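Chapter summary example: a protein plus flavin-adenine dinucleotide.
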Amino acid sequence: MLTKTTMPHAVIVGAGLGGLAAAIRLGARGYRVTVLDRLAVPGGRATVFKQDGFTFDAGPTIITAPFVLEELWQFAGRNFYDDVKLQALDPFYVIRFDDGSTFTCRADVKAMRDEVARISPDDVAGYDNFMRESEAIYKIGFEQLGHVPFPSIGSMAAIVPDLLKLKAWQSVHSHVASHVRHPKLRMALSFHPLFVGGNPFRATSVYSMIAYLERQFGVHCAIGGTGAIVQAMVKLIKSQGGDVICNADVAEITTDNGRATGVRMASGKLIKSEIVVSNACAAHTYTKLIAGGAQKRWTKRKMARARHSMSLFVWYFGTNMKFESVPHHTILMGPRYRGLIDDIFENKILADDMSLYLHRPTATDASLAPAGCDSFYVLSPVPNQDSNIDWMQMAETYRQRIAKRLDETIMSGFEKHVVTQRVMTPLNFEHDLLSYKGAAFGLEPVLTQSAWFRPHNKSEEFENLFLVGASTHPGAGVPGVISTARVLDLVVPPAEAFASAHA
Ligand SMILES: Cc1cc2nc3c(=O)[nH]c(=O)nc-3n(C[C@H](O)[C@H](O)[C@H](O)COP(=O)(O)OP(=O)(O)OC[C@H]3O[C@@H](n4cnc5c(N)ncnc54)[C@H](O)[C@@H]3O)c2cc1C
């Protein structure tokens, strides 16, 4: 029986959702857990900030696959719904095309088929086929492969038949286009990889599963904001006896003879541990936190050449009135689809046109703004820092362009009602969250950077080092990063076994 002094110590670098989920799992498995984050509050991209009476979720707002969170709580012997209230949304979101027409996504199968028929009656049969394939992809891609490690090339080879069956070499857009012809439907059914940093024209068609995931398990929001999930995770870790320490900047993951031995803080303090889990961006982990190590696979050169996801420009604002006609989630498509995506991902230029995601959580949860007010954020995918955009110069100009676009489309005259605001640019991703190249979602989700090809959850470079978070398997997004921590169950030894092996 382990005691507080004999329990193996796990240090977790980063209190993002992946790091917090890893802490809960390791705490439940008998490790003494310390989570360290350089920022002032936990949550990473899922942090929350309050300003002038408004509450803003900085990052994730769309909660899909809630069973992933339920399973995490169950693993720790708790019930997720005792700690967090989720609200199912209907409609899920409204897509507004550049000509002002809309496509409303909902859970109800008939409503969705009617919506498809309204745009293109000839595409209903193709849509049905697409949804059937989306389900088949989910059953393999999520249920079977989403939470298992890929420790060897052999384990990757073993899934090749599945990948062939799923036509995983196709992009999401090609997959959708093989089923429906209308350009608006092709857009509406293929844009989802952008939610996890993927280019719809390059992301593996495995991400077509998102359509089924949404329909089957719904689209939810957390009451009180996604920050309520972060707070509940921190509370759970503390109830297990773990620590979550903020303003704790890790300068180095210390190693000895090929083994991780703990961390050295920016203050110089050393913290020893039996295992280290890095929730920092994997590229940052391998190129900066253990930069002195002789990495074989994840060298600086390899990371520099890898494909990193796009970045984001996010404008948070509160208004002194309510905009009741604006739904909880709106996708505002710009005039170009492929051209804009190419400018963001391939040409790395800031285009004049834009597609936006507008979030109005107060449509569902009035507690996020003062009475009679609305809390918003609007997000624009932009190139990562491989571009030469000077965001110090550009931020205000770009914010104004976004404001103009909102004004011209669904929020006429809104700007005079803005009473509080803040922006987040790729510079924040790069310098605050320490994301390599300011990528908002880590390594881009393409087939050649998936499963075995992604940085492994059990480091292939150092013993006792583990990685979780968006740049590891299975990848970005709330269900994705929570699942990266689930993979740890299969690669981190139980605390008792670890302690006796190292006694
Ligand atoms: C604006 C935005 C909107 C999004 N919307 C959605 C959505 O609606 N639905 C969805 O499912 N997903 C969404 N996502 C994606 C999702 O939020 C992320 O994939 C996920 O939160 C990333 O979690 P992570 O575990 O990788 O950790 P991160 O959030 O990246 O956290 C890593 C943490 O590590 C810390 N850290 C790094 N280096 C160090 C160091 N040296 N020392 C100490 N600490 C360190 C950082 O401070 C950070 O807190 C969105 C992302 C963004 C940015």
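Key point: The two ends are 13 Å apart (CA to CA).
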